């Protein structure tokens, strides 16, 4: 998969629980005629889910904080209209970056690192 770095305008930002009953967040991106979405990670599993972990890593807070930090906003509702950079292929946006600084957020990498720090070593 060819990854390309390009600029994107955030046209919308959604936090929802309607995708299979778990909490997710999305950025809707416009590349100037074409668009793509970033997000869809499971940020929180309700108690009814088998893998619910009330003391696990704070994926939700980390995701929201890093998205806002990358876009340079203090409120989630300020995201639309902000320009960011993306590392994306045809099927997915892998990371988002600050438009001027060399600061990138790759949720898959960050969440793997958070999970590894939270998981106790095998006995």
Notes on the protein architecture:
The protein has 123 residues and is an alpha+beta fold. The protein has one domain. The chain has helices at 59-71, 107-118, and strands at residues 4-19, 22-30, 35-39, 83-88, 93-97, 104-105. The protein has a 6-stranded antiparallel beta sheet with strand order 3-2-1-4-5-6. The longest helix is centred in the middle third of the chain and has 13 residues, at 59-71. The N and C termini lie far apart (38 Å). The relative contact order is 0.21. The mean pLDDT is 88.
Write the layout of secondary structure elements.
Blueprint: E1 4-19, E2 22-30, E3 35-39, H1 59-71, E4 83-88, E5 93-97, E6 104-105, H2 107-118
Antiparallel strand pairs: 1-2, 1-4, 2-3, 4-5, 5-6
Overall domain count: 1
Radius of gyration: 15 Å
Broad structural category: alpha+beta
Strand content: 25-35%
Distance between the termini: 38 Å
User: What is the oligomer described by this structure?
Assistant: single chain
Q: Which sequence of strands runs across the widest sheet?
A: 3-2-1-4-5-6
Q: Major sheet: size, sense and barrel closure?
A: 6 strands, antiparallel
Short description:
This protein is 20% helix and 35% strand.
């Amino acid at each position: 998969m060819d990854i390309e770095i390009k600029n994107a305008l955030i046209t919308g930002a959604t936090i929802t629980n309607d995708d299979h009953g778990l909490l997710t967040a999305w950025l809707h991106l416009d590349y100037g005629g074409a668009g793509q979405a970033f997000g869809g990670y499971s940020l929180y599993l309700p108690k009814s889910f088998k893998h619910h972990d009330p003391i696990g890593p704070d994926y939700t807070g980390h995701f929201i904080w890093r998205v806002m930090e990358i876009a340079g906003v203090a409120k989630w509702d300020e995201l639309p209209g902000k320009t960011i950079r993306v590392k994306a292929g045809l099927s997915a946006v892998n990371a988002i970056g600050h438009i001027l600084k060399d600061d990138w957020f790759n949720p898959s990498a960050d969440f793997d690192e958070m999970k590894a720090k939270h998981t106790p070593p095998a006995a």
